[in-house]
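2024-03-11 09:14:02 INFO worker-7 job=invfold-0412 stage=load source=structure_tokens
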């Protein structure tokens, strides 16, 4: 559940989003929760529950390993204690963003993602051309003991022309405006786990 210290984190993320359109919080999720989520991701992978991720949506959805090489499984409430705790933390963040920035975020959809060594996700924006509901992206990393030289950074192309690489270290949450920030996932020399998701607004386009 969100704690007192989470209100401070939420406030920092809201300020960062207002000022820059992105925020990096190296210690967002408690260590124990991150470890449980990592175990769950690996268990889901062992069970064969993770499927190669697609590109695009609806009829245009296709698996293209030359674009992205991760495998994913969507999260649903009630699947595990750890997932529910995480969803509660992110719902607290959703409310804080709505209060601070009036974005009218309605829900959060997210999936576990596993990138095998060598897999990547080419530079892209998170908003679909035919669906503008995804408004704020939020990615939590689950990789204990990650070393910079293992690669696998999230590369953010910031508005001021700066490029910033974020190593996918356990407990770190990266939040950014989905329509504004091109980004990519660089290949790594070890397996790379994350929980990737999007806060969505009510859509007014075709669904
Ligand atoms: C995505 C994505 C970033 C990451 O799934 O759209 O950009 O660091 N993921 O895993
Ligand atoms: Mn993305």
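2024-03-11 09:14:09 INFO worker-7 stage=emit residues=207
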């Amino acid at each position: 559940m969100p704690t007192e210290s989470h209100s401070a984190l939420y406030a920092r993320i809201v300020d960062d989003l207002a000022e820059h359109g992105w925020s990096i919080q190296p210690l967002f999720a408690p260590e124990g929760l991150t470890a449980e989520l990592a175990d769950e991701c690996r268990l889901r992978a062992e069970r064969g529950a993770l499927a190669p991720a697609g590109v695009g949506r609806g009829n245009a959805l296709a698996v293209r390993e030359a674009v992205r090489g991760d495998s994913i499984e969507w999260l649903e409430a009630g699947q595990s204690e750890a997932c529910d705790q995480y969803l509660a933390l992110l719902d607290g963040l959703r409310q804080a963003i709505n209060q601070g920035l009036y974005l009218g975020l309605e829900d959060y959809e997210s999936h576990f993602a596993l990138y095998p060594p060598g897999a990547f996700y080419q530079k892209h924006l998170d908003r679909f051309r035919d669906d503008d509901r995804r408004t704020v992206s939020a990615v939590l990393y689950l990789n204990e003991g990650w070393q910079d030289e293992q690669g696998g950074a999230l590369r953010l192309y910031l508005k001021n022309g700066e490029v910033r690489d974020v190593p996918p270290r356990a407990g770190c949450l990266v939040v950014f405006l989905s329509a504004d920030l091109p980004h990519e996932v660089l290949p790594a020399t070890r397996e790379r786990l994350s929980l990737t998701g999007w806060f969505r607004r009510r859509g007014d386009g075709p669904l």
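2024-03-11 09:14:09 INFO worker-7 stage=report msg="The pocket of N-oxalylglycine (ligand 1) is lined by residues 113, 121, 126, 139, 154, 183, 185, 194, 196 (CB under 6 Å)."
2024-03-11 09:14:10 INFO worker-7 job finished
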